Structure formats: C-alpha cells, structure tokens
Amino acid sequence: MRRPSGPSPHADPGYTALKARIIARTGHHYYADKDDLLFDRLRRRFKACNVADAAAYDARLDDGAGEWAALEAEITIGETFFFRYAEQFAALRETILPGLVAARGTERTLRVWSAGCSTGAEPYSVAILLHQLLGPALPDWRVSVVGTDISIAALATARAAEFGRWALRTLPVEERVRYFHRVPASPGATREGGYALRPEFRRMVRFERQNLMSLLDGSMPEGFDGFDLILCRNVLIYFSAETVAGIVRALGRRLRPGGWLLIGHAEPHPAFAGWLEAVNLPGTVAYRRPPESAPAPQPETRGEPPPSSPLVEASSFEFRPAADMLLEASGASAVAEIVRPAPAAKAAAPIDPASAVVMTPDLTAEDVALAVRRGGGTPVVVLLTDGRANVDRTGTPGRPRAAEDARAAALRFRAAGYAAILIDTAPRPQDSARALAEAMGARYLPLPQADARKLSAAVRAAGEAA
C-alpha cells in the first residue's frame, strides 16, 4: 500500500509525542496505526496556525481550548444522516420507544442521550419519532433529548438545524416536506439549497460539548444519568478495546432500570452482556439495563468458536449496493458495494446478540473493516463499480462533482491503510474505474457482466495473489 503524498510523519521528531497526547485526550485509538492519515490532518492545522512542525504545534495546544477544538473538529469523522440504520429505527419505533412510553406513563418523563451526535441528525431523528409516537399527548410529557459531541463545529451545525440533501438521502419526498422546509443555497453542505428542520422538532433537542472520555476520568458533569435511552452509535469503533469496555460500562450505569442502549452494528462485544442484557431485535442487537426486580445479567460461558471457513460458496451470498458511502463518498452504485448474506443464509444463521457484527444495508464498508481490524484481523474491502459516479455527496446529480467527491473519498480510504480490490463491472473497462482504484491504492480487476459465482472466484484468486 503506497502512502499518500507528503512528508513522512516519522521525519518530524516531535510527531510521536504529539500523537500520544492527542490520543490520550480524545481517545481516538483509531489513529494508532494511521500515522499518514493523522499527519495529513495535522499538517492542515500546522498551516492554519503558521507553525513549522509537530513540536511547535504541541506548544500551540498549550495556549488554550480554542486550538484543541479546531483540531478535534479536523480529526473527527462526522458522517451522519437522518434515520441512519433503518433496522434500529424500526426497533425504536415498534419496540423500544412504545415500551418506554408505557413504562413511564405514570410520571410522563423521558430522557434520551445521543452520545457522539455529530451534526445532529440522530437526536433530531429520535425527536421526530417521539413527536409521532406521543402525538397530542406530547405537551403533557417532559421529554429531554440531548446530543453531545467533542466537535464544536459539528455542534454549531446541529444547533443551526440546516442540512444538505445528503443528510436526508433516505427520506421520501413526503417526509422531507413534513419534517423540513427549504432554505436558500449557502456555502457548505447546503450549497445546492438545503433543508431546515421544522421548529416543533428542533426545540425538543439541546446540544452540549462533551468528551466521552470524561465518563472514565470522572469529569462528566452532574445530570448525565437517569436516561431511558442512550444512543452511542459508530463512536466506539474509534477507541481501544479497553476504553470501549469502560465507556459501555459507564453508559450502562447512566441508564434507568429498564433503559436501553443502542450502539453501532459493528460494535457489539460478548463482554457487554456482563453488564447489560443483550436483546435480539429484528435486524439488530440492543442492550437493556434490567428492571430493578430482575437479576443482573451474567456473562455467557462460551467455548472456543468453531473454525470458520475463510471462503463461502458463492451461491449463499448475494451482492447488493451499500446504502451508505465508503468514507463519506457519493454515488453508492459507483463507489461502494459489500457482500451480504442472502435471505436464505440469514434465516439459517440467527444473530448471536452477544457478539454479532450485524450486516445491514446501512452498514458501511469502513464499519466492517474497522470491526475486523479491532478483532485482530486484516480486512480486505472489495468494491464493485463501473467508475461513473453521477450523484455528489449532497444528492445533486452531476458527474464532475460526483467524480471529485469519489476521488476525495478514495484518497482518504487509501490513507486509512485498508487493502482493497476494485472490480470494474462495466461492459468495457473504464479509465475512470482504473483511476479510482489507483487513488485508493486498490488492485484493479475488470470483470464485465459479473454474477455472484464469477465474483466469488475472482475475489478468491485476487485475495490469494495479494
């Protein structure tokens, strides 16, 4: 895997100490083995601060919280959109929230925390669900929805409650009209015109700047407890295993008895069942703090898992376009596809709620790769594309801007250090697909008119040659 262009971080004598300081403060263990990616983002701050090297920038961080906030915004990956992970929102709509409303019906209070909320799509999505669920009874309830994030810039966007098309990409037109009103074009995500959340949903949510590491060092302010629902999704994958265990245990303690915790599809771990009850819901796994009258969950005694075959017969898999973009790229059909179990395979292999990585249409290739890497494996991502992206990240049709977004995502993917194979599915090999593979540092494999069996054989051969 070739490194991105630019100086090596290890040529800067102060880099190692600066990196250790950043990871200790933010908990972003994600960067532990991604020196080139981290240094590329650091160099942007060097330039902005007019400093020459890591040592000078390290000293600049001592000047106050302002530069820390700018750095945290730079290194934080903030991909989010409304009603992300359809299976989890179906569980919220059909099981979790109705159960909480029934259980809290006498006191009529609900407290929700979206931890690592980024630009606010997640807590606002929950507010919309609660507004629908409670209906005319909403004024009789004390509903608190709080979103927290480490990034000041992300929180500013969340408070403004104006979003581009990309953040609304899963919503039908009628729901966009129901929940939002159009706003004129402005720089950034709404450069093609945007959507402002309607006041009745916006006023249900407040935002605060918090670092999840404060759960571990005792600096989390009073009042962050007694929650009925906590969402901490696609955040844990960026921390070390030890930090993840501490955070999940701390989040569990901040739930009321009978309260629920939702984490990302790639984030469950068997250890969590020692503190919370793992609940298998359609298409997802949720965790619940047992009611006060119920016994505390006990860790399951598990033997060594049976050895799994590294290759699966093609007939038991199907190829489907990912609904999410790899590293925030645009054009799902043109950038990222992943292999998912076919319906028959799903039925034959139920989810293990303690340890499953649940494959759903909202799970990104990066989510899966991170989960494999954290488990000690070496992920190889296979992308299927004809190389002709035609929709940019805002959801606006147009090949030139879509191609720019795709290339930018490919370069970020390459910097993250994942091995990849790009399969060109166009009837004739495309220069655009070959260029995208080069930008990613991926092996390019033209395979026109591919079916599942041909793809399986090609990936097998390419993987053995890698």
CATH class of the largest domain: Alpha Beta
Please give the alpha-carbon distance between the first and last residues.
11 Å
Task: Tell me, briefly, the overall form.
Answer: globular
| Average pLDDT, all residues | 78
Which structural traits does this protein have?
466 residues, alpha/beta, Rossmann fold, 3 domains, seven-stranded mixed sheet, three-stranded antiparallel sheet, 15 strands, globular
Short description:
The protein is an alpha/beta fold and 466 residues long. Helices cover 38% and strands 17% of the residues.
List the helices and strands and how they pair.
Layout: H1 15-26, H2 35-49, H3 54-61, H4 65-75, H5 86-103, E1 109-115, H6 121-134, E2 142-149, H7 152-160, E3 162-163, H8 173-179, E4 180-183, E5 194-197, H9 199-202, E6 205-209, H10 214-217, E7 227-232, H11 241-253, E8 255-263, E9 277-281, E10 284-288, E11 317-321, H12 332-335, E12 337-341, H13 343-348, H14 365-374, E13 380-385, H15 399-416, E14 419-424, H16 431-440, E15 443-446, H17 452-465
Parallel strand pairs: 1-2, 1-7, 2-6, 7-8, 13-14, 14-15
Antiparallel strand pairs: 3-5, 4-5, 8-10, 9-10, 11-12
Describe the structure.
The chain has 466 residues and is α/β, with parallel strands linked by helices. The chain has three domains: 9-75, no CATH class; 86-288, Rossmann fold (3-Layer(aba) Sandwich); 314-465, no CATH class. Helices cover 38% and strands 17% of the residues. The protein is built from 17 helices and 15 strands. The strands form four sheets. The chain has a seven-stranded mixed β-sheet with strand order 6-2-1-7-8-10-9. A three-stranded antiparallel β-sheet has the order 3-5-4. The chain has a three-stranded parallel β-sheet with strand order 13-14-15, with helices on both faces. The longest helix is centred in the N-terminal third of the chain and has 18 residues, at 86-103.
